UniProtKB/TrEMBL annotation:
Sequence intervals crossing the membrane: 93-116, 128-148, 160-192, 212-234, 246-264, 307-332, 344-361, 390-409
Highest taxon listed in the record's lineage: Bacteria
GO molecular function, one term: chromate transmembrane transporter activity
Species name: Paenibacillus lutimineralis
Name listed for the protein in its UniProt record: Chromate transporter
Lineage: Bacteria, Bacillati, Bacillota, Bacilli, Bacillales
Keywords recorded for this protein, A-Z: Cell membrane, Membrane, Transmembrane, Transmembrane helix
């Protein structure tokens, strides 16, 4: 072996070690965040900034702001998509996967354990589980209030939100929600004027993703979105049905994790996979764990089909996020500066508020609030969130204890 060949071999070995070290570093950093990031997606973005921008200096403030803007525009869990994007910028596709695993796995495991723990309980009568359902009322109400102030602040968008809520309640269906989102986007494209669109400065996000890979990701995204429901009508498989349900939910949810509630409830409860009580108890428990709210899918999958169901549901729920990030990063700067693109998403965000408002009534309110005691507990939890700014996990624990007390008194 010549000195040149030996040197090249050592260089390749060094690169492999550096890449492996970077992947492990990403996994360690994201796992730390997955264990400690309470408070929802906005809080997650603050944790990410502290860890990745200020402490580790993996990217600068401007690049981080651009990533946040990108992921706010995409359907799916914005905080998870930011973490995946940073992982990809640091360590390629494997880095993105490592970042997702670290941030997602702790809460997913906790919710799987919770699903097994309540398997032998009558969730319709357990007081503390009913308290979790009441906590969901306060948390979804907080989400509606906060999102409406920023996403439907004027008369037109507020009217769209109310109209969408009415239609969603009168004709409850996952397809109704999809149609309403599409119509809202079309309305924005046709009727919003250029004066209502803010000028977006030119920016650039460094990424190793090639445009060819981005095109393939978009083909896969739409191919699965269209093809899975068709395949489901031909192949009768529980796993395929689960994968299709959660893939569509992860693909079509704008506005964050809370909006996934009505879509999944409309798909899973009428199908007989679980009861409303089981659904809302798990949703309440999801507020008490760190990490992304989309790990609620692991709980639902476990209730339906044990560990295998949890894995299928979790992978299907987050696969659209990977495909969307890969497909959009190379084109982001061009897309975000187009007025038509901004107009479409302004009205889509207003429609999201309406869908969430409808969910606040049914199933959240109708399944949790039955007595004045229930309403008082929900009101107290809402005050803790809105006025005292207490973390959601603490409010969930308070509600669970309150539910147990109400059960003893009644």
């Amino acid at each position: 072996m010549t000195k040149q060949t030996k040197g090249t071999s050592q260089s390749k070995s060094s690169i492999r070690k550096q890449k492996k070290g970077a992947i492990l570093e990403i996994l360690g950093a994201s796992t730390k965040l997955g264990l400690t990031s309470f408070g929802g997606p906005i809080a997650h973005l603050g944790y990410f900034r502290e860890e990745y921008v200020k402490r580790r200096k993996w990217l600068d403030e401007k690049s981080y702001a651009d990533l946040v803007a990108l992921c706010q525009f995409l359907p799916g869990p914005a905080s998870s998509q930011v973490g995946i994007s940073i992982g990809m910028m640091r360590g390629g596709l494997l880095g993105g996967i490592a970042s997702w695993i670290g941030f997602t796995l702790p809460s997913a495991l906790a919710l799987v354990i919770f699903a097994y723990a309540i398997n032998n309980y009558d969730v319709g009568s357990a007081g503390w589980l009913h308290g979790l359902m009441i906590a969901a009322v306060a948390i979804v109400a907080q989400a509606v209030w906060g999102m409406a102030r920023s996403l439907a602040p004027d008369r037109i968008r507020g009217t769209i939100a109310i109209f969408v809520a009415i239609i969603t309640l009168l004709w409850p269906s996952a397809y109704t929600q999809i149609i309403l989102i599409a119509v809202a986007g079309l309305f924005g494209r046709l009727f919003l004027t250029k004066s209502e669109i803010k000028e977006v400065p030119h920016t650039h996000i460094n990424t190793s993703i090639h445009r060819r890979a981005a095109v393939i990701a978009w083909i896969l995204f739409f191919g699965l979105l269209i093809g899975l429901p068709l395949l489901r009508t031909i192949v009768h498989s529980r796993w395929l049905a689960l994968f299709d349900t959660f893939y569509r939910a992860g693909s079509l949810v704008f506005g964050g994790g809370h909006v996934v509630l009505p879509i999944l409830q409309a798909e899973m409860v009428p199908s007989g996979w679980l009861t409303d009580a089981q659904f809302l108890a798990g949703y309440g428990a999801a507020q008490a764990v760190p990490g992304p709210l989309f790990t609620f899918s692991a709980y639902l999958g476990t209730v339906v089909d044990g560990w295998s169901g949890a894995i299928v549901a979790l992978l299907a729920m987050f696969l659209p996020s990977f495909l969307l990030v890969i497909g959009t990063l190379p084109y982001w700067d061009t897309i975000r500066r187009r007025p038509n693109f901004q107009a479409i998403f302004k009205e889509i965000n207003a429609a999201v508020i309406g869908i969430l408002l409808a969910a606040l009534y049914d199933p959240v309110w109708t399944k949790a609030i039955h007595t004045p005691f229930d309403f008082c507990l929900a009101l107290a939890a809402f005050g803790m969130l809105m006025l005292w700014k207490l973390p959601p996990w603490l409010v969930v624990l308070f509600s669970a204890a309150g539910g147990a007390v109400i059960s003893l008194l009644s």
